[in-house]
Amino acid sequence: MATTSGPPTRHPTGATIYSVAERAGVSIASVSRVLQGSQAVSEKTRTRVLQAAEELRYVPLAAARSLAVRQHEAHGLVLPELSGPYYSELLMGFESRAAELGQSVVLMLAQGKQDVPRAVRRLATRVDGIAMLGSSAIPDETVTALGGSKPVVLIAGDETPAADTVRAENSSSAREVTAHVIDHGRTRLLFAGDPSAGPDIRDRYAGFVAAHEEAGRQALPPVPVALREDDGTALADRLLSGELDADALVCANDELALAVMVRLREGGLVVPDDVAVVGWDDVMTARYVVPGLTTVRQPVRELGARAADLLHERITGSAVPRSAQVIPTHLVIRSSCGCAPAPPTLPAPRARPRRTQPDSPSPRTRRKRETR
């Protein structure tokens, strides 16, 4: 970009595209093409326009540019709420990737909205495409409310012809973690979570049932609780009071599992001796609590980033026909399930410096010693 020899000239009333065109001696169409990055202008014209824009400190209005290029350069993201680590991780992954793609993010929370589909239609007027979570808090008709007018990516939802989907694998890992608990000799397992809350919880319970069937057992019905800290505390109180009877809890997320562990300990029970507890997500706290929480690692931030990628591809027309991406999950064994805790990793001892023989005393030192 060209620079000037003196300080930039300030436009007294605020620079416009017209004042830039006048300063550069070109048409406003040429200014528009240069600022949009078009290659259909000469290098000489580009230099003059950029120099004029810098001298006038001209910044094009985003709204005006949106009208010109028929794009908002923004992605919409619809979430049920923002409480808990899951939503913050998902949002960070989505926003970070959107920023790398040069897009801003407009967030809408379904919580408190009387008419979510209508709110989504209003959001669609401000963005180029929308990603939303597959949750009972966001009605199914919300996906079809746009009528194909804007690209839609469904996160952690069921496959649908109306949208692209990206989700983490749930059933197989839930079966694996449940089978692991059964292998520890636990016989009264409860699944904590509401399968009707969303496809991901439904599939985790399906894996819980599958593990019981493989072991020749009958799975108990789920305990339909929300996945928040307070709900975990209340669930533990039901165990402590004897309302629920279990020697193992398979929790649908880590927030629930961690709250259960803390409350059980306060109530005098020992995890995992009295009750084994496992979770889902592998939040950072899971590795620092005692005992460490056995859980399933779900790459939530990657889930958000993949959704932003897929939405951008659909907006720009580079995406293949409708796709359903599934991100693998992995069982993480710690000790809340009954496994022995891993021995601590100690740092390697530092080598002691080798002692060397003292240097021979100097003649002056010898003379001092001899005269004592």
Task: Supply database-style keywords.
372 residues, alpha/beta, 434 Repressor (Amino-terminal Domain), Rossmann fold, 6-stranded parallel β-sheet, 13 helices, 13% strand, elongated, disordered N terminus
Find the CATH superfamily of the largest domain.
Response regulator
Computed structural class: alpha/beta
Q: How large is the count of helical segments?
A: 13
Return the CATH class of the largest domain.
Answer: Alpha Beta
Helices and strands, in order, run as HHHHEHEHEHEEHEHHEHEEHEEH
Order of the strands making up the biggest sheet: 2-1-3-4-5-10
What ranges have pLDDT less than 50 throughout 5 or more consecutive residues? 1-13, 61-70
Tally of distinct domains:
3
Helical amount: 25-40%
Number of strands: 11
CATH topology of the largest domain: Rossmann fold
What does it look like?
The strands form three sheets. The protein has a six-stranded parallel beta sheet with strand order 2-1-3-4-5-10, sandwiched between helices. A three-stranded parallel beta sheet has the order 6-7-8, sandwiched between helices. The protein has helices at 17-24, 28-35, 43-56, 62-69, 85-100, 116-124, 141-144, 171-183, 199-214, 229-241, 254-266, 300-316, 363-371; strands at 74-79, 104-109, 129-133, 152-155, 164-168, 189-192, 248-251, 276-278, 295-297, 324-327, 330-332. It has 372 residues and is α/β, with parallel strands linked by helices. Mean pLDDT is 85; it is low at 1-13 and 61-70. Helix 1 (17-24) packs across helix 2, helix 1 (17-24) crosses helix 3 (43-56) and helix 5 packs parallel to helix 12 (300-316). The N and C termini lie far apart (83 Å). It contains 13 helices and eleven strands.
